[in-house]
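Can you give me the bound-state structure? Components:
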Amino acid sequence: MSAPTLREVTRQAARERISDVAIELFIERGYDATTVEEIATAAGISERTFFRYFPTKDEVFFSRAAADTQTLIDHVTARPADEAPWVALQAAVDSTLLELDRAENSDRSRTYRTVLAHSADLLAHQFTRLSDALTAISDTLWERWAAAEDPTDPDAKILIRTLVSSALGAVNEVMSFAEDRTPAERRRLVHNTLSAIRPARPDLGGSTAG
Amino acid sequence: MSAPTLREVTRQAARERISDVAIELFIERGYDATTVEEIATAAGISERTFFRYFPTKDEVFFSRAAADTQTLIDHVTARPADEAPWVALQAAVDSTLLELDRAENSDRSRTYRTVLAHSADLLAHQFTRLSDALTAISDTLWERWAAAEDPTDPDAKILIRTLVSSALGAVNEVMSFAEDRTPAERRRLVHNTLSAIRPARPDLGGSTAG
DNA sequence: GCATTCGTGGCAGTGACTGTCACCATGTTG
DNA sequence: CAACATGGTGACAGTCACTGCCACGAATGC
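Here's the bound-state model for the whole set.
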């Protein structure tokens, strides 16, 4: 987009260095047991400066871990605009999982999940992040649906939200409770679960498989 | 059950008095803007004593607001043990909504939702509470299913979890985004949404309506 | 009457933040 | 080159949720 200033580049580099150090500490001793002061000292800065780079302690974790939900959002956006919401969503979930299961990605995300699972605090914030993703995806799908159908329909938005909620829930459950399965197995589980859902109204995208 | 000690009765009374005062303050000036010290002072106790009655600040809120999820759990438990998971869940959701929509209940829960919606912090904890409910309900349904079918099936537990996740998600979405509808309308929305979900496997409870 | 136990308040401390200020290294301008 | 504005930084004090510790007083048990 716009030319990044020297300052912006430096700042971004600093951010990454801090989060590298932080995540290393999180893995080593857990999120809760790591203080911001320790992160700052390990990164060679003061605690005050840490908070100039990250608004909260958990942001330093999610700055790296949030890639997954963003990928899903991107894949939804990449779908053809005239596709029905539920069809687009299913396809986006499929292709997102396929992408995330690639090589080095899965190592990284397994590590993050471990850190996440050991901190109730972090987990709580993860839920609100999922909730934000739900809103982002639902809004995108709703706008597209509204352009083609009836933008004044009062039920559509909420029905779309529940569909997205189900999809995110399914992915989250499988990722959390089927860590030991192969990526292909996980994808199959998610796919089967989503296939069993047929939107309450055909205009939202009834199953194409009859 | 067991005879409540005099101490237990006094303690419970104190807890209720504190949470009454606290929730009044939350409504008046918002959750985040209310400090524990203010609650304690208003209740005529010290801050230290407050934390002997409630482990955290949000607990004082949820001690009153958690009734809804507990009602759902109860209704699931009340279902016949041999009923398929998804059938039991749908029925439990229906009857729970019916019960919660009764008279004075809905005023109270609207107030709570208002407080909740204005605090990101509180909302995050609400999600973890929903997650706990998800686990409780899923465990109950799984145990029943396992007794009748195959307890060693590796997929069952996770498939049940995704079903419960969808159900809770649907209820949550409707309650959050259809506040302005009539209770009957909300129940219809939830019911329709859940009817559109057919478990990936018939043993988990395919729709009875063909 | 005395000891034990329990509920309470006071107080100090921790950890995540925020506001303020002074310092210093920039880069800019005359 | 000197005066100046700009922005990043650390030090410090303060807030708020929460915890551990101790001492006091009141109810309880023998």
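A couple of observations. Chain B is about 75% helix and 0% strand. The radius of gyration of chain B is 20 Å.
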